[in-house]
Amino acid sequence: MNKIRPLGTLALLAASGLVLSGCAGTADGADNADASAEATAETVELTFEYNTAGAEEEPVYEETTVEVPKNPENVVIFDMASLDTWGALGGEVAGAPLESVPEYLEDVLAEDAINAGSLFEADLLEIEASDPDLIIVAGRSAALYQDLSEIAPTVDLSSQGSFEDTLERNVNFIGEVLGAEDEAQAALDELSAGIEEARAVTADIGTGLSVMVSGDSVSALKPANGDFSGRNLRGGLVYDVFGVEPVLDDIEEATHGEPVSFEFLLEHDPDYLFVTDRNAATDAEGEQAAEVVLDNEIVHQTTAWQNDQVVYLDPTAWYIVFGGIETTQIMIDDILSITAE
Amino acid sequence: MAVAAPAPSSTPTRSRDARTWVGVLFGVSLVVLAAVSLFIGASSDASLTGVIAGDDGSLFLLAASRLPRTVALILAGAALGIAGLIMQMLVRNKFVEPSTTGVTEFAGLGMLTAMVFWPGMALPLRMTLVALFALAGTWFFLRIIRFVPVRQLVLVPLVGIMLGGVVGAVTTFFAYRLDLLQSLGQWSQGSFANVMRGRYEFLWIAALMVVIAWIAADRFSVIGLGEEFATNLGLNYRRVVAIGMVIIAVITACVLVTAGVLPFLGLVVPNIVSLIIGDNVRRAIPWVAGLGSVFVLACDIVARVIRFPYEIPLSVVVGIVGAGLFLWLLLRRRARAH
């Protein structure tokens, strides 16, 4: 799909300024008012491993250290997890890929927030014109680092190590930038308690299989098994973070998990089926919802279906954002909901 | 309406006996591959012994999952082969089929249109819309190639591929803007992994088109001789072309909606058949249908076995094998021309 990128970029540039120049969610700058008042020349330093290889290549890491201003006024965030944490710790965002910001995070956006592009591409002209003090990228947008770092101090908060490691580093970093270290620590403590609680629940539920439904096909997701790069990290969250025992441990992974037939589900017959509905996550209207795809006579024979143990995960949280303070809480609640019923 | 077979571009040199023998080989392969296809699957529950013993689980899987998939493969293979054959007759060119003439891309645009404007559209309606787009695509292609000299053998598919490229780019552009790129990739990738009872029945409509093609076979043979010749024989040229266009469009739409795109199949199958038995459409139809089924069944078995219990998309296997054969046919012709 790489071949369409240049076309897409052109289109995006051409359409910039026309689309959504002043259409943001409501936000009040109250929290931010005193933060910016005490803005000084203070800086926070962050060292991170920046991946210099292309999106589809073996990652090549280069250690990069960036100094960012404390309490920056004008922040552009491409990574939804960072945007989540930024908002949860009292910050306000001046620019983001507006169309990709999930509803529950819209109040993080400033009233006049600019549309910075999409999750994968930056509207460089618009961003440069807005003269930001800090730009945050990660994961999907990590490839934009080079271009964006020429505009303003840019940090790449892509995952490093496990989900928990990344969450801790990013929350602490953002806490420090916003001068909200204590709130950051409190949030981390609460989340790790929540994850512990969820793990206690999943310890006795038997086996599980995490699947993604996309279009009308089903893919099996696999545990990260120590390799927390890119999609591995996201696909494995159910097992790696929340302790679900995989029904088989050699699930290979293609682009979006391994395509499997319905027979595969019946053959391995996990006690619990955790479903991420990609159609819903990306708003592919007209695609069949995961419920409809799975509602067929073969899946009806599985243990998970018969015992009503098909768990539909919040697609935005698990597929788009997966990280950040509020989102992690949603993920914890999804797992805890198993016992609530 | 008995019409002599048009002088085939490549005179079959095999004797009648040899042809019969090849026919028997196709028949046997079809039966064997269908049987193998029935007993390959992620679930070990549907074993041959289980079915013979009348085990409930085995019979259920056989009826709900295995049989529909095998039948779907046979129908899709046969129909795509026929769509290619008819298209080659209408265009009087051996190198065309829906995926080299932009028809498939038009159908894809129809699919996207349905998704964007009528997301909740019932499946039969969506299929109809896709078929209408495919029909428009076929019509458009036939209009365009009127300007291409018939003798320019390679120019015709080239024009078609370019037309397909333009329409495909338009589709990709809108899919990109509307964040539907991955969905587009999903359904343009041919796969029968999710075929089960209740999910493949459109292919019976494609099978009906095959029957219609068979009934009208001789007319297509005449069409293959050119408009003037056909009209001189008292044939309503436009009506036959219209029937052909509908057959192609409906088959393309049925297969696209059910399984996705299977490239080159409609191209290589009729060509191979023509090498064996010549260009008489009536005689070719059962051969094309049979060989198309054998081809798709074999490719699907490879797709299912290569990474068992996971599957690779069928379109990948069909694409690789089909492209290889396409190249071979192309080079073979060039070699003769010199």
UniProtKB/TrEMBL annotation, chain A:
One of its GO terms (biological process) is iron coordination entity transport. Residues 74-341 form the Fe/B12 periplasmic-binding domain. It holds the Pfam family Peripla_BP_2. Keywords: Signal, Transport. Residues 1-21 form the signal peptide. The keyword Methyltransferase does not apply. The keyword Cell membrane does not apply. GO terms for cellular component: outer membrane-bounded periplasmic space. It is found in: Cell envelope. InterPro entries: ABC_transptr_periplasmic_BD, Bact_iron-sidero_bind, FatB. PANTHER family: IRON III DICITRATE-BINDING PERIPLASMIC PROTEIN, PETROBACTIN-BINDING PROTEIN YCLQ. Belongs to the bacterial solute-binding protein 8 family. This is Iron complex transport system substrate-binding protein. The lineage of its organism: Bacteria, Bacillati, Actinomycetota, Actinomycetes, Micrococcales.
UniProtKB/TrEMBL annotation, chain B:
Gene3D superfamilies: ABC transporter involved in vitamin B12 uptake, BtuC. Keywords: Cell membrane, Membrane, Transmembrane, Transmembrane helix, Transport. It is found in: Cell membrane. One of its GO terms (molecular function) is transmembrane transporter activity. It comes from the Bacteria. It comes from Zhihengliuella flava. The keyword Transport applies. GO terms for biological process: siderophore-iron import into cell. InterPro entries: ABC_BtuC-like, ABC_transptr_permease_BtuC. Belongs to the binding-protein-dependent transport system permease family. FecCD subfamily. This is Iron complex transport system permease protein. CDD domains: TM_ABC_iron-siderophores_like. It is a multi-pass membrane protein. GO terms for cellular component: plasma membrane. The chain crosses the membrane at residues 21-40, 71-91, 103-122, 129-148, 154-176, 202-220, 240-273, 285-306, 312-331.
